[in-house]
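ping. complex inputs:
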Amino acid sequence: DTEVTQTPKHLVMGMTNKKSLKCEQHMGHRAMYWYKQKAKKPPELMFVYSYEKLSINESVPSRFSPECPNSSLLNLHLHALQPEDSALYLCASSLLDSSTDTQYFGPGTRLTVL
Amino acid sequence: AQSVTQLGSHVSVSEGALVLLRCNYSSSVPPYLFWYVQYPNQGLQLLLKYTSAATLVKGINGFEAEFKKSETSFHLTKPSAHMSDAAEYFCAVTPSSNTGKLIFGQGTTLQVKP
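pong. complex structure:
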């Protein structure tokens, strides 16, 4: 089973709202990732958690705050977002066991900021 | 720095025709290469990956790719296109140091005409 789940599927929020995106995997993977994807563009890496610790932050604005409560869960807390933050947010996970480490993606959350 | 170039942002084929999606990489060391497919409003699904075990890699849905070191290429092919193959295709490379970063090409939109 290579399933990564994400909730909600769609989210509409105002610029003053606080919301959270959730990601879950039960494959025993040790790394989890957040990506942002604009239409007709490749995914852009935002954050990487390895063994529940933040290992990569690609200079993401502080209005995006990741959290990894345990090895199976990854959250992305959103606050004071801008309309340009509207995008598909993808979560991925990988085993992190070798150089050929493979990332498996969830279905994404379609975020619209009004 | 490693990079990936996908030649042709849009490829159109007739149903039943050969599919060829091009991917070239730049790397001074042996890379680890992936092809992902993204159907509309969905996440990325792994099609296949090159792990240096064999230069011809077979993936899901009848796709395969051949690693050619002399040409620094990893082109994706399918002998006979189906309407259901219409999607966005991304070639990606991960550094041999396995930093957790997946470097994507810009993507190729495959259109299949009846």
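Chain A is about 0% helix and 55% strand.
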